[in-house]
Amino acid sequence: MIIMMIMIMMMMMMMMMIIIIILITGQGGNVTIFWNQQVQTDRTIPNNKPDIIIRDIEKGTCMLIDVAISRDRNVVTKEAEKILKYKDLTIEVQCMWKVKTKVIPVIIGATGTISKSFRKYISNIPGNQKVKELQKTAILGTAHILRKVLT
User: Fold this and answer.
1) What architecture is the 2-150 domain classified under in CATH?
2) Terminus of the chain with fewer CB atoms < 10 Å: N or C?
3) What angle, rounded to 10 degrees, do the helices at 2-25 and 131-150 form?
4) In 3-state terms, what secondary structure has residue 31?
């Protein structure tokens, strides 16, 4: 039963990542999107596989996006954890690709809870992201898990 809950949570995260990628790809320009791909670096970095990497060659920017669904009480802690987790990778990518790099944590609680800084992080991602849609996805996924567990 726990394995099924973990699998469903992973599916929820995948759906959120797909929604974000679809909204981003509507943008024009010379943008490369990597999804679930390891970044090859000169030195060994343990955390070198963010969920989404968006590299905009024209603007000279790179975004390392990590998506997670967490407990409602853990949202702010998880955001800080994700930023620290990819600090070394951010420095390496800036040196290798000669771009301005930032980590964007997309963390939503299981019942749709978001942090105060969530809208600021989402506004950095190109495209038209709707916070309500992301929250709705998290809530529907939680409801799906509860239905599976309670029946």
Assistant:
1) 3-Layer(aba) Sandwich (3.40)
2) C
3) 160
4) strand
| pLDDT tens track, the chain, 151 positions | 555 555 566 666 665 555 555 545 545 568 888 888 899 988 899 999 999 999 988 889 999 999 998 888 889 999 999 999 999 999 999 999 999 999 999 999 989 999 999 999 999 988 788 899 889 988 888 888 888 888 8
Per-domain boundaries in the chain: 2-150
Give the separation between CA 111 and CA 94, rounded to whole angstroms: 36
Q: Model pTM?
A: 0.79
CA quadruple 62, 29, 16, 109: dihedral sign = positive
Q: CA 4 to CA 149: how far, in whole Å?
A: 9
